[in-house]
Write a structure and sequence with these properties.
The complex is a heterodimer of chains A (about 550) and B (about 160). Chain A is an alpha/beta fold. Chain A contains 22 helices and 20 strands. The model of chain A has no long low-confidence stretch (mean pLDDT about 95). Chain B is an alpha+beta fold and about 160 residues long. Classes of the chains: A alpha/beta (about 550), B alpha+beta (about 160).
Chain lengths: ~550, ~160
Amino acid sequence: MKMNGAQILVESLKKEGVDAMFGYPGGSVLPLTDGLFACPDINFVLVRHEQGAAHAADGYARATGKVGVCMATSGPGATNLVTGLATAQMDSVPMVAITGQVKTFLIGNDAFQEADMTGITRPVTKHNYLVKDVNELACVVKEAFHIARTGRPGPVLIDLPVDVQTAETVFSYPEKICMRSYNPTVCGHPGQIKKAARLINSCKKPVIYAGGGVVVSACHEELLSLAEKIQAPVTTTLLGLGAFPENHKLSLGMLGMHGTAYANHAVMESDLIIAVGARFDDRVTGKIDEFAPHAKVVHIDIDPTAISKSIRVHVPIVGDAGNILRELNSIVKSPDTAEWLGQVRLWKKEYPLRYKTSKDKISPQYVVEQIRKLTGGDAIICTEVGQNQMWAAQYYTFLRPRTFISSGGLGTMGFGLPAAIGAKVGVPDKAVFNIAGDGSIQMNIQELATAVAGNINVKIAILNNGYLGMVRQWQELFYERRYAFTKLYAPDFVKLAESYGAVGIRVTRKDEVIPALEKALSTPKVVMLDFVVEDEENVFPMVPAGSAINRMIGGMA
Amino acid sequence: MKHTISVLVENKPGVLARISGLFSARGFNIESLAVGETHDPSISRLTMVVNAAEERILEQIKKQLHKLIDVITVWDLTNIDFFERELVLLKVDLNILETGRFDSVVNDFKLNVLSRDDREAVIEFAGDQDRIHELSVILDAGVKELVRTGRIAISR
């Protein structure tokens, strides 16, 4: 049967199992939005800004593990997706972005609302396509989804000129895909796995360092088995939160710049680091030359470019973490780590995470802990970027994968609210919180309308300290308290919420925190909580940029 | 150190931009680049020469090259035995260069003379880097224009 390009795209999305997408209309996607309008199988969520569409697709993908889909028109609509694509690229999130493009014969003519999207997004996507022939469209969509979700996942952009959307051809969706130039290694090299096992069998002070790759590969159970079998403590990266239950006795919580002191000490003193789906980011390693000086490193990662990028790896194993951990678990023996675990326990006792409490004033960390208590750890927690993000990471105690959603690599302020919307669309049965700051919430505040209009009942907890808190913290510590441009004016968030049709609650006293959260959870509406918290509270511990990670400041070690 | 890198890619639009982008994003200059179809018209071969200030970064770039979806294989020929050739076209000013001198250079280098009149000659020469360098030194001020294809290489 003959179809036009727009219909072919819609049918192809259905074949890929897409049940929701996030987008914004415009002149160059009119045929496409018309096709989607007639399609009851895909829940089209109308955002208020294209950046929101990209982050929502991202949040959807991170919460569900499926490919997130967003759509924008040509030119400014498409360029507004760029930050969202870069965010997804840095954090390995499977996404397909569809952009309208001007008519084929106008491309390169500075036509109205024209932007070279394949050019602009080349460094921030895993791959991208400009489709100039409708006969190629179905195959391109098939490839795009395949590329987005396999290997190290990432965003793929399809730029679709409006005349290709209206051009007709016979639709047939390819069953299989074969790309000679793209075949990610999935199985780990058996020789390398044996080498890793030998190192593990003879180590005395192992640490497992788990990242977002464990979540992507859904191998949290294999990770738990390995940790218990070899009795190694486990620390996770920011994106690895939830990959290992933080209430487990082997858990060290997060490591790095704002990691726990005991995680950082354990890594620095270890004789073997087993990195699983993590990439030794600079926020994790601190000063490279002084990082874990006595440790041999086993690095399991599906992306060969992640290996030996910043630190020297002794046993690299390229492949899917789940496959490799299963192999490893079947051959590894249990080294004697009793003494080491004793030392780790001492560090945990000596340097716990802690914060100043006061009788009336609200500590931001306290708010995070109460959210944790009231949701039983079963909510999906999205964050913005900055202090709110670090406190959420430190104090929520994550138990399950895909319950923590945050822009780690790019550190995108304004990510949290749209990501929470995407997560809630993907997992409607779970409570979804966006833990925000008063700065970052204002960066995509317009998405409140998306949430209210779509009955997407996310809960927004603003830790309102009147500052761009993390930058203020650096200014306090390293710029003699010169608070250059970090004192923020914020609107009345309660009135703002109400004007959008959401519920707004201001909380100024500690004893109001729990009742307010209870009310938010029991109200079947979008709720914005404005927690007026201590204005100069800091995120501790903290490793100053460029220092070794055991040189922490903030009353610890 | 100079590296000669040979890359097989899908013969599609945008591939060259993806590859050059990996170098430019890191502030690396590509010294020489030659691209052409292989015996399979759906595949192109790129041969490039880059001067790596830091070997570690070049290692990383090679991995990144391989990671590009349209890249099929990447070889660094630097440490293996390979032939390298480049074609140059030169326009020579015969008023500066004596006729007898020019004729002996044509003989020595087995130059292919494409055109010649009283004033100037256009010549063609293919060779490795050392020979091309020698030729341009000998012709020196007589060279009015010089065009190079970029190096191509093949392993032994």
